[in-house]
């Protein structure tokens, strides 16, 4: 599903939180949104889902395929969420219901949006558990019985069970340790690509972003400071905010080998940053072993 944001402004109690944001995500494309804490990343994701705080004032346009989100009714928005738009949140422990088994949790969006028999739902849940790499017996467990990585696999399964056409992942790996982070990002990317869905991947960490999205927007104090391919931004960050985020990622990086950037952006962003036939610093070792402590 394509996403087109034009002139988005969000104000809360007279304070400007999001300023004149424009963003494009083509159908089937993965795009990153990176910025430091408090820059407004979650506010943009809430605006796209129609879940802004009640005291927020919003103007501009957010189109998901042919639907306008700004000013849409609660009913229209509820129909979109979970069915066409899947959400993966930062803290899986907090976003899962502690008194629901994994199976009921994952089945919930199906119960809300589709008229299936119990057996049909359970079959889909089992197939989904397999896709996210969880054993079948996890179905009857409760969230507290799972590790953080397993909980986020349940979060991803819940987001993807209805085969949504667009996924918003808001810092989905921030609460996890770094090796589990890589597995979760890689899993999300492969499932989103297999489904042919588009994704907005939100993070404050360029190392995570470089695995998740080819193109990205850098957010600074509620406004887009810079856009381009993730590879170009890693090599030549031009704004202060991007320089800061790149150097923070490099400090955490274990490996400074260089690799060739291979793919281009689907949307028109490349034009603003030049070509993609460049090398950039690899932030993660691709040779990741399986013993990850999940
Ligand atoms: N419910 C709210 N009411 C008022 N201000 C808020 C609310 N939620 C977030 N903010 C403010 O909006 C700004 C952006 O927040 P947020 O989108 O959560 O940032 P990020 O996700 O990039 O860390 C911050 O200054 C934050 O204090
Ligand atoms: Mg946030």
TrEMBL record:
Superkingdom classification of source: Bacteria
Name its cellular compartments: Cell membrane
Q: Where is the composition biased (Basic and acidic residues)?
A: 279-294
What is its membrane topology?
Answer: Peripheral membrane protein
Query: Which SMART domains does the annotation name?
Result: AAA (SM00382)
GO molecular-function term, one example from the UniProt record: ATP hydrolysis activity
- Location of the region described as Disordered in the Swiss-Prot/TrEMBL record: 271-294
Q: Which UniProt keywords apply?
A: ATP-binding, Cell inner membrane, Cell membrane, Membrane, Nucleotide-binding, Translocase, Transport
Q: Which Gene3D superfamilies match?
A: P-loop containing nucleotide triphosphate hydrolases
- Gene Ontology CC terms, in alphabetical order: plasma membrane
Q: Please state every residue range assigned to the domain named ABC transporter.
A: 3-246
Q: Which family does it belong to?
A: Belongs to the ABC transporter superfamily.
- The protein's name in its UniProt record: Diguanylate cyclase
Give the source species: Bifidobacterium hapali
């Amino acid at each position: 599903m394509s996403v087109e944001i034009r002139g988005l402004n969000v104000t809360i109690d007279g304070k400007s939180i999001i300023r004149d944001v424009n963003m494009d995500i083509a159908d089937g494309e993965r795009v990153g949104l990176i910025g430091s804490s408090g820059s407004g990343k979650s506010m943009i994701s809430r605006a796209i889902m129609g879940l802004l705080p009640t005291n927020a004032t919003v103007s501009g346009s957010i189109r998901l395929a042919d639907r306008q989100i700004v000013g849409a009714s609660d009913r229209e928005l509820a129909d979109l969420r979970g069915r066409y738009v899947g959400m993966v949140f930062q803290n899986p422990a907090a976003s899962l219901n502690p008194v629901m088994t994994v199976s009921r949790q994952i089945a919930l969006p199906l119960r809300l949006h589709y008229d299936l028999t119990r057996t049909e739902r359970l079959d889909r849940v089992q197939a989904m558990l397999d896709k996210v790499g969880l054993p079948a017996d996890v179905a009857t467990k409760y969230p507290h019985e799972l590790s953080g990585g397993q909980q986020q696999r349940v979060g991803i399964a819940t987001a993807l069970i209805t085969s949504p056409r667009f996924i918003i992942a808001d810092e989905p790996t921030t609460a996890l340790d770094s090796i589990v982070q890589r597995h979760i990002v890689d899993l999300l990317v492969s499932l989103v690509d297999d489904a042919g869905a588009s994704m907005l991947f939100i993070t404050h960490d360029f190392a995570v972003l470089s695995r998740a999205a080819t193109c990205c927007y850098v957010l600074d104090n509620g406004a887009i400071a810079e856009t381009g391919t993730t590879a170009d931004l890693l090599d030549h960050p031009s704004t202060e905010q991007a320089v800061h985020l790149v150097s923070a990622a490099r400090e955490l990086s274990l490996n400074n080998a260089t690799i060739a950037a291979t793919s281009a952006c689907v949307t028109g962003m490349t034009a603003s940053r030049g070509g993609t036939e460049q090398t950039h610093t690899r932030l993660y070792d691709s040779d990741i072993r399986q013993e990850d402590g999940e």
